[in-house]
Amino acid sequence: MSASSDFAEFVKEQLASIHGLQGKRLFSGVGLSAHGVQFAMIIDNVLYFVVNDATRPAYEAMGSQCFSYTTKLRHVEVKRYYAVPGEVIEDHQRLAMLARESLEIAALPRKSAKPKPRKTAKAAR
Predict the structure, then answer these.
(1) Which one, of 73, 68, 75, lies nearest residue 41 by Cα?
(2) In this structure, which CATH number among 3.30.230.10, 3.50.50.60, 3.20.20.140, 3.30.1460.30 belongs to the domain 5-107?
(3) Which residues of the chain have pLDDT under 50?
C-alpha cells in the first residue's frame, strides 16, 4: 500500500481552500490534517475521509467503501474512513465541502469504549 506523490499533490491542490492543510507520511500513505486534526488519508491512491454515523450513508449511496486491510489473521474494516469517489475529487468545491464536514467530525471527541465491569471476588463463607 502506498500513495503516489503526484496524486497526493493533486488532492492537496484541490483542497487548497482548507486553511492549515498539511500532508504527512502515514504508514505507506499520506495523512491529511488541518490545525492538528487528521481528517483524511490517502492509501493506494484512494482518498478517504473521516465519517460518522450521520454522514456514512451519503458515502455508501455514492458507492464508496470503507478503508480495509488484511492481516495474517483477519480482514479489518475501518468504518471511520470512507473512500471519496473520483468525480468528487475532480470537483474542488464539492470536495472542499466534504473535507470541511470530515474535519468537523474528526475534531469531535470520540466515544470511548465502555469499560467492562470489574469482576469482584466472592466473599468467603
Answers:
(1) 68
(2) 3.30.1460.30
(3) 1
